[in-house]
Specification:
Layout: H1 10-18, H2 23-31, H3 38-42, H4 50-62, E1 66-71, E2 74-82, H5 84-87, H6 90-103, H7 108-119, H8 121-136
Antiparallel strand pairs: 1-2
């Protein structure tokens, strides 16, 4: 359950959900890396700890950004999916990637993956959003 916000400023409200160093990376991995299981997300380059990952996944689920369902192929695994609320973060992720490409020393591999999304414009964002909806909803 979310606690009362510090203020109802729109920036503050977003930061109360995404203001830590892990949450948007988890969303990135699910959204763009097609990582749908706990262990897949755990293997990300940034090396999140299991307790932090568990906490952030639970928070994202409680906020309605992700859903957690049983994996039909493995009874002991769960599959994480984006909700429409989560899919609606795609333009935010793209804008952050575009900013980093312009102002930070992005690796060649990251640039190869993010530049098309960052520069694709509204048409690409719309297509990717539709693809995510088909895959996750």
């Amino acid at each position: 359950m979310a606690r009362d916000p510090k203020s109802f400023c729109s920036i503050n409200l977003a930061l109360e959900v995404f203001g830590d160093k892990w949450t948007l990376l988890i969303i990135r991995d699910i959204m763009l890396g097609d990582k749908r299981h706990f262990r897949e997300i755990l293997q990300s380059e940034e090396k999140i700890s299991t307790n932090i990952l568990t906490d952030r996944l639970n928070m994202l689920e409680s906020r309605g950004i992700l859903t957690k369902g049983n994996d039909p192929s493995h009874k002991q695994k769960f599959v994480y999916s984006l909700t429409q609320k989560g899919i609606d973060l795609l333009p935010v992720i793209a804008a952050m990637a575009q900013w980093s490409l312009k102002h930070e020393p992005v690796s060649a591999i990251s640039q190869q993956h993010t530049q098309p999304i960052a520069e694709g414009g509204p048409e690409l964002i719309g297509r990717l959003s539709d693809e995510l909806a088909t895959k996750h909803l």
